[in-house]
């Protein structure tokens, strides 16, 4: 009979072995999680010390540089993407001279000081901000900190360049780590598709997609968001870059319904907040997305384009496409997917961890039913 060992402390390093006692690797223990151990190395002798963190951060930075990040046009990128960079429980985004981090496990949070030291040693960072999720912290059993950890307090505002646009986002407005870096590839595609089109951008936040569309030559851009502070920042960016964008503040679902029969757009982008935070919410999320597609479809011109995005791994590409097909049919349209777009290269996905592919977008042409 195998001896019963005492349970490790929360966040402790543990050796994982198979049923025969063969080492599988080392990880960090999360007693409050369904995933009790997150492996960070297959080497049973390796410890998660400062040198190890430094090596992983340096390797992650080298990967981004190999894909051209940062660049003269873009100095905002995801430096560290948890499992994608073999440091589960840690996300780090860079915005110019500022790094914003999120801890997702008790083990990584317990190594907060080591992480801060490693970040500053790997890249010249002036300010470090933590924006850890209170929900994740409660589930894992650690204290989520929010605010400036290193540097001047005024550094809470994010100032950065992305695809040649100059952004400034107040710290109190920042969503997640501050900006949706993962949608950079979609912004590229919208800019390429927008010329001569009337564009509607739903759930716009600070207007990055709208700016891309207008720079791409859109005749008209309307951006909708429920946050007036976000739209205020959008208008500031619009004025700064001399790219006029119309804004509407309110619930996107309701405003779209009010527009039916009154407005038509050649290109509609629908990128709602996360609808399925876990797999048990997949079916309700599919139904809500189907209704969104139905309502949006009534605003799209014949042979126009609808772009639909999901930032929920549980609402994957298959589910998203199914919602698109059913919602378009409900509106008397047929949808043909012409492109699929995913998160950028600074959000790498291990082949053995497909759940890391959490962001999917479909670009579809909407035809009238024959």
Write the H/E string, N to C.
Answer: EEEHEEEHHEHEEEHEHEHEHEHEHEE
Per DSSP, the total helix count is 10
Assembly status:
single chain
Sheet with most strands: strand arrangement? 13-12-11-14-15-17-16
Largest sheet: 7 strands, mixed
Round the mean pLDDT to the nearest integer and report it: 93
Q: What characteristic shape results from the CA principal axes?
A: globular
Structural class, judged by helices and strands? alpha/beta
Query: How much strand?
Result: 25-35%
* Helix coverage percent: 25-40%
**Radius of gyration, taken over Cα atoms and rounded to an integer in Å:** 22 Å
**Parts with pLDDT < 50 across at least 5 consecutive residues:** none
